[in-house]
Amino acid sequence: MAEAEPELTEPGPPALSLGALFLRFLRFGLFAFGGPVAQIAMLRSELVDQERWMSSARFNRLLAVMQVLPGPEAHELCVHLGMRARGRLGGLLAGLGFMLPGFVLMMALSWLYFRIDFERGWVGAALMGVQAAVVALIIRAVHRIGAHGLQDKWLWGVAAGAAAASAAGVSFWLVLPLGGAVYALARSGRRVSAACLALAGVALGAGLVLNSEASSSVVFHGSAVSRPGDVAAWVLFLAGLKAGLLTFGGAYTAIPFLRADSARQGWMGDAQFLDGLALSGVLPAPLIIFSTFVGYVAGGPSGAVAITAGVFLPAFAFSLIFYDRLEAVLENRRLHAFLEGVTAAVVGLIAVTVGQLLGGLLSEADRRLATTAILLAALAATYLWKSKLAPPVILLVAGGAGAFQP
């Protein structure tokens, strides 16, 4: 019995100074290539398997909690692990350390972006190739999220309905809660009520679209912005906060919300939006760091800081402030069902956004054949190559293919 006791004791982090804790997670941030799966695997390997900051079972429960919350899971895990080591200040420093390399690099690339000579033919062609690969990566992400999130016919119905509503111009403020509520009712056995609520939602959405002259304004393929805009920092902060609070199922789910704001307000065209996604794809950072680029284009350096703060604020807040209560709250199966419905609706929104981005990408007739070829090749590569290095390498190769197209 005496020998079994240590296994029953939950392990804890080693004694670290605040400076050492920050540097530890800064190193994680410097090597955070490959997206959330690779980032979470890196944290598990070093902090759980090797250094025993917590048991594997506890890490699994923690990850399950983070996956049903909005925000990038890997970043939220860093905040929680830092808080476990040195309290809330430790959580803050761990989260900042993990995101800082990507943020600094994205700021630098955003500054450089406006100093590139796009009139040089090969530069524009290379970016077109990268944009095609970005769309391929998003298509793969939609498939992956859908495969995990759409587990029954009701969820498929919620996703399809959300896609139709989004394509018609219905605001996601109506689509997302309605999708969650419909699925929660269906899961509880009240399928007639779920169907009635869905029909009421269709009627309400149709009425809103018919009475809104701006319902189609989010479909925007405008020309490139030649210099950063002057959008107020508080506007960009709220746009980022909205995206951060609605990012269910991974960073790709932030794309439709930030694109909707960018298109509706005319901050940038789809080509530049895809450029921002491409830049984030080759950086050691959560993909959601593309929001920094959106903020820079819309409002310069201050706008980049503001929108990044808004996007990451929920990821910090949930772990630093609310985690002690989350496990009890998330035991509520009705809440699980509601969140699953919201996630399904988000899948529908992303699918529509992919279609709109694809339409803009293929709008240039003289490059349509080459762009389509790069898109299909990149899409095949995303399915065949299972590596954390796959996304950045695919983007770089696609850029080279675009630059050297005849």
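The record above closes out task 2.4. Task 2.5 opens with a second protein, given below.
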Amino acid sequence: MEGTKRKRSLTLPQNKSGLFRLIAAVVVFALLFWRVGAVATVSQFGADTWLRLAVSGLILGGMYALIAIGYTLVYGILFMINFAHGEVMMIGAFGGYFVFEAFNAIPVTSADGTTLSLLNSYPILAVFLAFLVGMSIAALAGFLLEKIAYRPLRGAPRLVPLISAIGASIFLQNAGQLLFGPQRREYINPDLLTRGTGWEIPIGESSVMLTYTGVFSLVLSAILMIGLFVLVQRTKLGKAMRAVAQDKSTAALMGVDVDKVISQTFVISGLLAGAAGVMWGIHNQLINYFTGFLPGIKAFTAAVLGGIGNIPGAMIGGLFLGIVESVGPAALGIDFQLKDVIAFSILILVLIFRPSGILGEALAEEKV
């Protein structure tokens, strides 16, 4: 009987805390809906503007989702946050940048006597090599990061590899500044992906442009996300990754090379981050050594929002965050420069009201 009373006394504060969080959540969302409704009644934006913002957010969200999947893959296997993942994206962006620069510097004379750069003579080859180089360099960076910064700390307390990840992030930022310079670099796209051009979709008396760079980035993001999901669910490597995430010791006893699987996970996350980096340069034009920091933190927010360790959750979280970040300032009637505030406010709200995310965390029993 005494034990029963003690158990009830322990659960009662948890129930009160849960009730308090529920009431607070209702109040917060009621205020948000009230604000959106108040802005909507006086808003001067038409349907074309809202659709334009939503499309822009969807494109941005696809990039966030690719980076967020990298966080989720590493967290699912090692139960740690790789805060240097944004810098891996930055390295991939510079890899694609230098490929485009090399192609643009080589002149090619056609049969009719006109001279074009190799970039515009063979645009598909240039884009393919830009992604190949950017993804390969980012994958190598992820592989070396695991070997040097994380593997020696495999058995250390959880805080130690987290500090190592922050240190690796700062190191890669400064290395990028020394190697590439502090100035911003402009991506020179082939004419096939000229910025500001695309398909015009009529909306009432106005129209919405689907830019070539935006559609290309969104479609490629979707292909890569679907490919990763198939790899994890249908291939031998994917089964090994899921086994290691579930229980490393048992997976090792069943013949799985745990260290090799962890290295391959970092390579895959690096590939996705590198692809996101090249897309970022192609679509947003400017990159520098600090390019990966904010997208990396926002992608971490997306991973937490969807459910850390949950691959579909990272996809949904990234797309949702991109749309909210793009549409949110207009919907709330605030300056568009405050979009970062919205993104990080979402992180705070999720951590307070639903720490497990939209789809819930994917954790093995030993990690709970």
